[in-house]
Amino acid sequence: SLNCVEWSLLPPATEEMVAQAEQLKGRFQGDPSFEYEYTEINAEDAERLFEDGKEPVIKEEARLIATIEQIDRAVGIIPRGAFVKTPLGSVHENRNFEGLSLTEAKKLSSYFHFSEPVNLKNKTLLEKADLDPSTDFLDSLEHDIPQGSWTAQLEKGGTVVVLRSLLWLGLTFYHVPMSKQYGYVYFGTGEKNLDLPFML
Amino acid sequence: MNISQSYALGQDSHQAQEERQSLYQSYALGLDPYQAEEPKSAYQTDAVGQDPHQVYERGHGPYQPHEPGYGLYQPGYSPYDDQIPDPKSRMLAIQNAKAYLLKSSTTSGLNLYDHLANMLTKILDEQPTNAVDIIENISKDVKWAQFQKKMDTLRDEHEILPTFEAAEKRKALFLKANGGDEELEEEIGETPLPNVMETAFYFEQAGIGLSKDESYLIFLALKKLISVQPIQTCRFWGKILGLEMNYIIAEVQYHEGEEEEETEEEEVIEEGGKGMGEVEDEDEEKEKQDEPPKSTYKPPPVIPKEQNGTGANKYVYFVCNEPGKPWVKLPPVTPAQIVCARKIKKFFTGRLDAPVVSFPPFPGNEANYLRAQIARISAGPQISPIGFYQFAEEEGDEEEEGGGGRDTYEENPDFQPLSVAEMVDSLSAWVHHVQSILKQGRCIWLNPFKKSEEEEEEGEEEEKAEDPDELQQEIGPPLLTPLSEDEGIQNIPAWTAQPSTNLIPQYAIAILQSNRWPGAYAFASGKKFDNIYFGWGHKYSPETHTPALPPPVQTEYPSGPEITETRDPTLEEELAFKAAREEALVAAEEEEEEDDVEDDEEEEDD
Question: How much is the pLDDT for A199?
Fold first, then answer.
C-alpha cells in the first residue's frame, strides 16, 4: 500500500525474482510499476538473458517482493518457546508461552530465526542433548555471521528488550519480557547492509 | 507432600462421607486413562485403604507375590478391607496402576499421584466455576506452587529489578531545581531550553520520533543541562543508535565570553582518551628521528582545528547515553578527524572511550569519531526555510578566503513563511544554514603552507585530502545556498519532500528527508522549523564501502656505493691480496729496512 488506505496483495516470491533483485542496487523509487534496467550487467549475462527471450528489466514490484522475502528469511526472529513443534513435525504457536525472563531476554541465544534451520545439524552431540526438540528446532541468533550483527538493548527503563539487526538496517524486534508480546517491524530503505564487516 | 498427606488422612478421618470419596474416585477414574478398564470397586480399595506411609513406599514398585514385601500391602491390613473383597489379579493391577502414578518424573521430581491429589484438593477448596474448562491452568498453577511452598530460612534477596534502578536515575530529573536557578530563569527573556515536546509533536506528524516518554525525559535532561552550564542556545540534535547503548545529543552554544577551555571543565565521568590534547597548537610538524639514512618521509602538516565558536566547532555538543545519565561534553573536532571519518564507516558501540579500530587509523577514540560524524551531519542536512536567516553584514568581504565573511547569520525578523505547498514543491525554498565542510576538514580553508617555511616534498603515498601540489584554495558552497543545488546520488535527489498529510492541507507541515544521510529530517510549518537526526550516523552510498588501500610500500633509500653491501672477501682473496701487498713491500724493502718491520706488523694486523 502506498497510503495505508488501499492495500494490494503481493504475490509470493520466487527464486528467480530473488536472484534478479539481488543485482539491483540503490533506493526504491516508490512506484511499484517502475522498471529497472540492468546497468551493471556484464556481456555474458546479457547474452544469456537475451537468448531466453526475456528482457532485462525488473519491475519494482518484483524487487519489493523479493526484498520482503529476503528480510523475512534472513532476520525474521521469534523468541524461544513461542512456537512449538509437535512430534508429528507440524509447527504451531505455543499458547502457553509466557514470555522470556529478563535474564533470558538479554541473551541472543534465546531468539531464533523463523525460517528453515540451517545450522541445527552442525551442533555437537553435547549441545544437542541440551536442546528440547519441541522448542529448539530453529537456528539461534548467536551463531549469526558476522558475529555481532545484532544489537540488544533494554528500553523504557528495562521493560522492553529491543533487538536491531545490523545486516538489514531498520529491522527492529521487540519483546516485553514475562509477557506474550513480541514482534518485528522493518522501517528502512530496503537495502542490505553489505558494509557490515567493515563497520563492526 | 503435606497436602497429599492431609488428603490421605482426610480420607481416613472422613470415613463416613462416602459420597465425597466416591467423588474423588470418579475423578481419579476419569483422569487416569490407563485405569479405564478397571472396575470402580478396585479404586475404592485403592484410594481408601492405604496408610499415608504406605502411599510413599509404593514407589518401590509393585511387589510380586514371591517378594518379601508383598504381604505388607495387602488390603487386609487396613480398616476397609472387609468392605470390598478383591481377587489377586485385580490387586496386582491396582498396584501396578498406583505404582505408575507414583512414579517420579525424571525432570521435575514430582509424581502424577501427588500432583493429581494436590490439584483436586485445590479445586475443592477453591470451588472455581467451570473447573473442567480451566483444569489445565489449575494443573499448571499447582505445579508452579510446588516450588514456592518451600519455606526456606534463607529468603531470596529482594531482587532489584533493572526497571527500578532506571527509575531511580530518572527520578533525579524530576526533582525541581533549587531556588537559585529559578531566579535566573526569570531574568532571561527566553529560556534557552528548546521545546522538545513541541518539536516531537511536529515530527510525530511525519511518523518520525521517539516515544512520548522518552521525549519528555530528554526534555527534562536538557533542562538539567541548562541549569548546570552557561548556555545561550540549546537544541535537541537527535539520537544516534549504537551497538550497546545509544547516544542522545544536544547541540548548545555558549554565551559569548563564557567559554572555557574544554579539558579543564569536566563535570562527569570522563575518560582520558588520546584525542584530548587538541587544545595545544598542533601546527608544528613532526619529524622522525631516524638513524641514517634519514628518511625522506615527512608527514603533511597537521591542519589546526578551527577556533571554538566558528566553523565546524561552532556548536558544542553534549551527549548522554540515556536521559538521566550525566551529560558528557564532546571535544571539539579537528580537520584530521573529519577527513578520516569520511573514509571509514564504523558502528558506534555506545561507549565514548571505545577505540575506533579502522584503516586509515582514526586519530582518537569513539568520542572523537562521534563528534566528527555529528559535524558532518550538521554540515550536510541541516536546513531551514529560505529567508529565515539572513546575513548580518554586507557582502563586500567575499574575496577573502572562501566565504570568510559569511559565516554568521541571524534571524530575519521580517521572515514571511511560505506556504506548506511551496515548501514541499520546490527544494529551493530551503537553504543550508550551516557551513559545509571542505575537503580539508575545515569550513574555512587554511593554507597550511603559509606558516611553514621549508619546502617540502609531499610523499605521494599520503592520503590526506588536501591538495599538496597546487595548494588551491578550496571553496565550498557558500552559506545559505538553496537545496536545489544539492547534487543527488546517481539518480536519486538529495532530498525527498512531502507534506505530512494530504487529507488536511490546512494543518499539514512540510517534511524533508535527506537521502544522503538517511535519518536526517527537517520539518517546517509556518514560522517553526527544526532539524533532527535519528539513525546510525552514516552517510548513504549506493556502492559498498571500500576501505582505502594501504599506501604503497615506500621506496627504500636509494642505494649508492656508501650503503651497498659487498661480499666479504674470501680467504683466498685475502691471501692473494696479502701476497700482492707483500710483493709490493718487498720492492720497497730494498729501500728502507725499518719500514719492513712495521709493514709486516701492519699486514698481520690486517
Answer: 67
Closest alpha carbon to A145 in A119, A121, A123: A119
| CA B184/CA B396 separation, integer angstroms | 40
- Residue-wise pLDDT tens digits, A8-22: 777 777 777 777 777
Q: How many interchain CB pairs under 8 A, A with B?
A: 59
Strands B316-320 and B328-329: antiparallel
Among B214, B545, B546, B549, the strongest candidate for a mutation testing the A interface, having the largest count of A CBs within 10 A, is B545
The Cα–Cα gap between B250 and B236 comes to: 5
Rg (CA), chain B: 44
CA-CA distance, B432 to B489, in Å (whole number)?
Answer: 18
Contacts of B545 in chain A (CB under 8 A): 195, 198-199
For residue A25, the surrounding DSSP H or E stretch is none
- pLDDT for the residue numbered B492: 66
Please state, rounded to an integer, the average pLDDT across all residues of chain B.
Answer: 63
Contact B360, B549 (CB under 8 A): no
Q: Of A163-172, B28-37, B313-322, which gets the smallest average pLDDT?
A: B28-37
Question: Is the pLDDT reported for residue B32 higher than 50?
Answer: no
Sheet holding B495-499, edge to edge: B328-329, B316-320, B247-254, B231-240, B528-535, B520-525, B510-514, B495-499
A158 touches chain B (CB under 8 A): yes
What is the per-residue pLDDT across A99-144, written as a single tens digit (0 to 9) for each?
777 777 777 778 888 777 766 666 666 666 666 666 677 777 766 6
Which residues in chain A have their CB less than 8 angstroms from residue B166's CB?
157-158
CA distances from B216 to B196, B200, B221, B386 (A): 7, 9, 9, 30
Q: Please state, in angstroms and rounded to a whole number, the distance separating the CA atoms of residues B358 and A52.
A: 46
Q: For an interface test with B, give the residue of A24, A98, A155, A179 to mutate (most B CBs within 10 A).
A: A155
CB proximity A157 to B under 8 Å: yes
Strand order in the sheet with A160-165: A150-155, A160-165, A171-175, A182-186
CA distances from B56 to B20, B52, B101, B111 (A): 23, 7, 11, 11
CB B328 within 8 A of CB B319: yes
**Do β-strands B528-535 and B231-240 pair in parallel, antiparallel, or remain unpaired?**
parallel
Contact present, B342 and B376 (Cβ < 8 Å): yes
The domain ranges of chain A are: 15-74, 77-198
